[in-house]
């Protein structure tokens, strides 16, 4: 392994973070159809999958780790949040919910339940509101600028 290449890459990542510049190559995505189910001749039985740059994916993970650390360290996420957190899942949410409902029923209290499906919610999140929320939680300017440029530019797809 050539450690000078790793050092060079760390300089590129640091410059990208400091300036907020996101290289166009990191946003290129090769969209490939992946078969789901049903007749293979039916185009509706395929879903598009974006194959993106490893360098861009790695930078996304670095930024995500920084944001996650910052938000969790500053109690920006409530303990009841299960989605998008390490060692938390739909199952841990269900167990927590079941425990709370069981306690209420044992106390003789009425329980009403409403289920909502937010499976596509992130696709509709306003980027400007998301950035405002991150800024309100004290996320540093360099990370905010990088995330803004990453989100606003969006992936550039090619077939």
Automatic annotation (TrEMBL):
Transmembrane segments: none annotated. Residues 39-151 form the Reverse transcriptase domain. InterPro entries: DNA/RNA_pol_sf, RT_dom. It comes from the Eukaryota. Pfam families: RVT_1. Signal peptide: none annotated. This is Reverse transcriptase domain-containing protein.
